[in-house]
Amino acid sequence: MSSIQSGARGALDRSPGSFVQYKWPAISALAVTLLMVFYRWFQQTYAWATGLDSTLPEFDATWMKLLSYELPLIGIMWVGLWSWIWMTRDRHLDKITPQEELRRYFTLVLFIFSYAFAVYFAGSFFAEQDASWHQTVVRDTSFTPSHIVLFYGTMPLYVTFGVGSFLYAMTRLPKFAERVSIPFLLAVTGPLMIIPNLGFNEWGHAFWMMEEFFSAPLHWGFVVLGWSVLALGGLLMQIMMHITELFKRMDAEGAV
Amino acid sequence: MQIVKNDSIRGFSMLGFLTRYMARLRIVVGLGVLLALSGQVFAHGERNQEPFLRMRTAHFYDMKWSTTAVAVNEDIVVTGKFRLFQDWPGNIPKPERVFLGNGTPGPVLARTESWINGVPAIQSGKLELDRDYEFKTVLKGRIPGRHHVHPMLNVEGAGPLLGPGNWLTVSGKWEDFKLPVTTVDGTKIDNLETYGVAQTIKVHAVWYVIALVYMLWWLRKPLLMTRFAAMEAGNEDLLVTRGDRLWGAAFLVGTLVVVVMWANWAEATYPRTVPLQGGEMLVDPLPLEKNPVKITVVRATYDVPGRSMKMNLSFTNNGDKPVQVGEFMTAGLRFVNHSVPAAMANVHPDFPKDLIPPSGLKVENNAPIAPGETRTMMVEATDAAWEVERLTSLLNDPDNRVGGLLFFFDSEGNRIIANVMGPIVPVFGKS
Amino acid sequence: MASNSQAEAVEIYGVKWSKWSAALSRRFDIIVAVILFLAVVSAFHLHFMLLAGDWDFWVDWKDRQFWVTLSPIVAIIFPGALHYVFWDKLRLPIGATFAVVCLIFGEWMNRKFGFHDWSYFPYSLIAPATFIPGAIVLDVALLLTGSMLATALTGAIAFAFLFYPANWAWLAAYHLPVEVMGSLVSVADYIGYAFTRTATPEYLRFIERGTLRTFGGHSAWVASAFSGFICMLMYIVWWYIGAFLGRVVTVPNKLKTMMGLKKDPKPAAVSI
User: Fold this and answer.
1) What are the beta bridge partners of residue B150?
2) Staple partner for C208: which of B73, B310, B368, C65, CB 3.0–4.6 Å?
3) Chain A residues within 8 A of C45 when measuring between CB atoms
4) Contact (Cβ atoms closer than 8 angstroms) between residue A109 and residue A239
């Protein structure tokens, strides 16, 4: 990771480009887009062809195969990214320069962008598509062509970025390391809890709800957990407070 | 000089890896599609429904399809009868509100008519247990392809109950599909699929643009951090200017004017509208047919390794003509007694072959049951279909009962339909 | 060219900013605006589809009773919550419009790629409702009154009342009467009937099944009035929930020494 060299006072590069680096968020957005295009293509090609009857070998050869690629990928993504962020943490946050801290704030904001980008596909795009599928066909398994993409593809992906951004802040930014931000925690754990809430959803569809009524109380767990995204407002306030304070510190330093 | 063109020499190539990965995936999924297209046995998700849902709820019989191949816009008429089973499972609601649906892979066929006993089935209604109903559905080809289509009853609280599925082929182009209708006030609608869509998109687009323009006033100015700092500094009076208020007020007035004018235009253009219709369908069952044969299940077993259901049944013929056991039907499967010609003639040639097990129904004593006679005999339905259709999973049910219809035929070919129901015991070894 | 000089200052909304920090703040604005767009599309759309989605999905669910009552109540929640952050912290009177613009974007994306392209439903069956007129009025009410309470009393009720007429501009055509198999139904009913939803049968529709007395048949307006009343309450409740979730609350981090920060001093012994 590059860092800003603090040289003589006042001679620092303070152009926006030296603080805001788009390379990784652009790569992640591109990768997520490609993955989502692949998922959508897969659904279009195989949902009607092999996805209607989960007892068929064709279902295993396509849909369960996709799931079998997804499940280890989840583990790799979670363990890989999170442990990498933790292992490469800054062990001397007490010695950080304001320039470096400001740069990291923008990296954090862009990390949250990657999180929000992945959340869009899970919370909006594939979520409503779940209605278009389940209101159209007879549900015969917990692993439907819609759920294999929504719950085991897109949701673990945003959890990767969400927890990743939280860990990034905690390991790279003194104020987030000093005290845990509750709005940040909410904005990450709420959407994360949607995955375990799937247990309730499947329980209900197995024992209780035989028809697909999308506004059914069975689905309200997702709604309440989704509200936690509003805590991004608190996080936004917090980040703006920290950044404006850094601006002041850096201007004061430069003015000396 | 030697030119080496080999990825491996340059180490790991991400592109190469992805290409190989995709190629492998293509083989896997391609195989899946080939299998799917070649196999006749392709279901609609009903196989994973619990056997009690399929053996003891709606039994569809006398199914006929006017044709199994149409062009886009041509009709397929599906007719048949169904009996709502006497031994309806206690754990699902009774058919208090039922809708005659059709199990299709999406709206690949447009339903233009549906009738139950001559009553239009556009609404849902109450049906009675242990009674028979005749239905007719008219489907119009819409999306080209080969579709597996089931007749279906949706029972409130119990969900979709599927009848026997058949393969229907639609040829042509989706773009050519048209569903015209003439309204009561004489308006001719060319195609319901596209009707009103242009106006809907126009209303949405106009409001969307208005919303974006309204927001742009603020978005063009320093937006978040600077406003936040100004609020912290107590400069809130500088954040909302007179210009802002005038801009907002103009949008307020404009919005109200546009809403009122557009709603008035709609009222004037469509002066006679009706609310959504939420009535109930009222339908009487078919008249009760005489059922002079009384059946008692003495013992029923399912031989797991032999894939064979064996029922020891006691028959009493209270009628005035001798009858023979011709067919056992459950969950859409038809086990037909090959030695009864009337039973064989009762199978429509278009009925899906995968639902007629070739080994048929074995009856211990094929001699007609004489009037007044009581006879106990073994009836055996053996086929891999029990496994294919996953009906053997009834062994995993908390309610281990079997149900189905037995068709009897007299010497004149008249048919009598009787219910068979009772507990069933699995046999895991030789019985 | 990048400005490295801290001496150059600009004044924005009465606050002095060095040029470089003002430029960075604009970058921040743009990135965060994109984040907010994505986050609100996701959260608001998820919320709306799972609380009022069925009415919004299908033209034959858009009745005069439940659709008209429920949709504004469910839809005002995010505008209410966003108004707190947007207005109280930033004095931006666009919270509601922004929220519904996000919602409608998410809906149309899916109506095309999900309902139409994947599940073959015609657009005549699956168009969403618009909330934009009500949202603009709600925003402007806050802009002009500057008061949450006054906005609840005026804008929130307008949000509900404008819903039905604003959508009637496109929905009316689907309520023409048509005779099908000797029965009278609306065009919307027939569209829902013709294009089958296997797992969503007719009886599942939560629609007006016949009013008791709506005094002249004004079902939709009676529903709007009730919806308006609840919207007023919802707006206030969600303003405060927005405030609750928008608070900056922190708790000590026990792991901070692993990042080189000093341990918290032990609290002084408390004498009993």
Assistant:
1) B103
2) C65
3) 123-124, 127-128
4) yes
Q: What is residue C6's predicted lDDT score, i.e. its pLDDT?
A: 52
CB contact under 8 A, C33 and B219: yes
Contact C20 A219 (CB under 8 A): no
Which pLDDT belongs to residue A29?
97
Give the whole-angstrom CA distance, residue C101 versus residue C136.
11
Window 47-66 of B, Cβ < 8 Å to A: 47-49
What pLDDT is recorded for position B17?
Answer: 47
pLDDT band at A17 (very low <50, low <70, confident <90, very high): confident
Spatial contact of C185 and C193, defined as CB atoms under 8 Å apart: yes
What CATH number is attached to the domain comprising A74? 1.20.1050.50
Which residue shows structure tokens 């797991």?
B304
Q: Is the pTM of this model over 0.80?
A: yes
CB-CB neighbours of B13 under 10 Å: 12
| pLDDT of amino acid A1 | 41
Domain B293-427 -> CATH class:
mainly beta
pLDDT tens across A23-81, in order?
999 999 999 999 999 999 999 999 999 998 888 899 999 999 999 999 999 999 999 99
Whether the CB-CB separation of B200 and B387 falls below 8 Å is answered with no
Cβ of B225 within 8 Å of Cβ of C170? The answer is no
Tell me if C177 and B230 make a contact (CB, 8 A cut-off). no
Domain limits of chain C? 4-164+218-258
Listed range (A156-160, A197-201, B63-67, C151-155) with the worst mean pLDDT: A197-201
Distance CA(C155)–CA(C158), nearest Å, equals 5
Distance separating alpha carbons of residues C23 and C244, to the nearest angstrom: 31
Q: Which of A166-180, B10-24, C101-115 has the lowest mean pLDDT?
A: B10-24
* Spatial strand order in the sheet of B425-427: B361-363, B374-382, B308-317, B293-303, B425-427
Q: Is residue A66 part of a domain?
A: yes
CB C263: neighbour CB atoms within 10 A?
A: 8
CATH class for the region spanning B46-184: mainly beta
User: HSE-up of C214 (CA within 13 Å, CB side)?
Assistant: 15
**Residue A180 within any structural domain of the chain:** yes
Counted domains in chain A = 1
In a domain, A12, yes or no: no
Give the structural domain span for A236. Answer: 19-253
**SS3 state of residue A99:** helix
Helix %, strand %, coil % of chain B (to 5): 30, 35, 40
Residues of chain C contacting residue A240, judged by C-beta atoms under 8 Å apart: 28
- Cross-chain residue pair B36–A243, CB shorter than 8 Å: no
Backbone angles phi, psi at B294, to 5 degrees: -100, 130
- Average pLDDT for consecutive 10-residue bins of chain B (431 residues)? 39 50 51 41 67 89 95 96 94 94 93 96 96 97 94 92 93 97 95 97 98 97 95 94 97 98 97 94 93 93 89 94 95 94 91 92 93 95 87 78 94 93 84 47
Four-way CATH pick for C4-164+218-258: 3.30.70.260, 1.10.287.130, 1.20.1450.10, 3.20.20.10: 1.20.1450.10
Q: How many CB atoms lie within 10 A of CB B14?
A: 7
Whether A216 has a pLDDT exceeding 60, the answer reads yes
**What residue ranges in B304-371 does DSSP mark as E strands?**
308-317, 323-330, 333-336, 361-363
Residue A42 maps to a domain: yes
> What pLDDT does A141 receive?
84
- The predicted pLDDT at position B19 comes to 58
Report d(CA C51, CA C73) in Å as an integer. Answer: 10
CB proximity B189 to C under 8 Å: yes
Give me the pLDDT at residue A28, please.
Answer: 96
Q: Under CATH, which architecture does the B197-269 domain have?
A: Orthogonal Bundle (1.10)
Which chain B residue shows the shortest CA-CA distance from A237?
Answer: B228
